[in-house]
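Input.
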Amino acid sequence: MDGNEAHSRIKINKLLDEAGWRFFDDENGQANIVLEQNVKITKTFLDELGNNFEKTKNGFTDYSLLGTDGNVIAVLEAKAEHLSPLVGKEQARAYAYKQNARFIIFSNRTSVLIRN
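Output.
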């Protein structure tokens, strides 16, 4: 299915990468995206997933975007393309509150909504 959440996440991953966010430590600095809190995702693991993020055992939670101080500044909730990005609004709000994040970003690959 082309419009599932996994495909949304693949597109979001690419957009975050193009915007300068990092999933992995590199010459530009430390990773500043966390896919699962307290779990550092390796490139090998991400490559093994290919186009099927649903085959993960624990699934991916919201993206946590980190500031230069290492604190979460925004959470990003990904949804399947056929769903409104706001479907996970309450889940993302609770997660942002718990992480003390100022911003919440909702995306279904075709739409992006940002809340403060």
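The mean pLDDT is 77.
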